[in-house]
Design goal:
mainly beta; five-stranded mixed beta sheet; 2 domains
């Protein structure tokens, strides 16, 4: 990773590898100083992640008809949209994971399992974020068998068949970025992001995100996308003024670009 370069009171985004690039405009970088706010909106980081440059061609998924039996009701085609790079309205990028690290802040583990479904031979949602220590129910809502094959870096891997109407349950104790595939239907791919931080968001179809409740101070934020790689930035949450007024903060805007592909993006 290249050294992070200071810019005013913030740090500018830098690419994590030479395969792909991440950049911000000077105006966007200068907006990363965030005033703290009282109540539920205290220290809210909100904005948008956009694609910069010529949009790459994203081809439909290669779906083999012989393997697609039972995926959808008779006469209904499988959705062949490739979700690995979704660029929407005003170049907003979906499924960018933004994680802000705050000292001593740990994500709370939910009592109930988090659900990832296999529906119409697609994993839904495409990107799921869970707290470290959480349990996931991998469901099969199709009329065809699936298997959940995970590729973790830190957690224990498995390759588990899930029968029609069945489920497989697993717990993930360590922070991780886990690719998930179905070997029976090779076009099925998704990501499970396991985070120790409670301050995590996934951008929506327009590239928008919001992370609330940040305390005053400087915090490292990481942007990660399965095709565009990752980058880091430091955000500064300003303390309240003497009268409790927080002032105004422009929405954050990050611009990601794709450079010549020389390998897989780092997780």
């Amino acid at each position: 990773m290249n050294p992070i370069v200071p810019l005013l009171s913030v740090l500018a985004l830098v690419p994590s590898s030479t395969a792909r690039g991440v950049a911000t405009s000077p105006d966007a970088a200068a907006a990363i100083s965030i005033p703290a706010r009282q109540g539920s909106d205290a220290g809210t980081a909100a904005g948008r992640v956009r694609f910069e440059g010529e949009k790459p061609e994203v081809k439909p998924l290669a779906i083999e008809p012989d393997r697609a039996k039972g995926c959808t009701p008779a006469g209904e085609a499988i959705d062949a949209k490739d979700e690995s790079l979704l660029i929407g309205k005003d170049n907003g990028i979906a499924n960018v994971v933004i994680t802000i690290e705050v000292a001593d802040a740990k994500a709370k583990v939910p009592e109930k399992p988090i659900v990832m479904d296999q529906k119409k031979c697609r994993f839904e949602p495409h990107v799921v974020v869970i707290p470290a220590g959480a349990t996931v129910d991998f469901l099969n809502s199709d009329q065809a068998a699936h298997n959940v094959h995970i590729y973790p870096l830190k957690n224990e891997g498995f390759n588990q068949t899930v029968a029609v109407g069945g489920k497989h349950t697993a717990t993930f104790p360590k922070s991780d970025k886990i690719q998930i595939k179905c070997d029976l239907h090779p076009w099925m791919k998704s990501w499970l992001i396991v985070s120790e931080s409670p301050f995590v968001a996934v951008t929506d179809a327009d590239g928008a995100f919001k992370i609330a409740g940040l305390p005053p101070g400087e915090h490292k934020a990481t942007l990660w996308h399965e095709e565009l790689g990752k980058a880091q930035v430091v955000i500064k949450v300003e303390p309240d003024g003497p009268d409790g007024a927080a002032g105004k903060s422009a929405p954050l805007e990050f611009k990601l670009s794709q450079q010549k592909k020389e390998g897989r993006p780092r997780r």
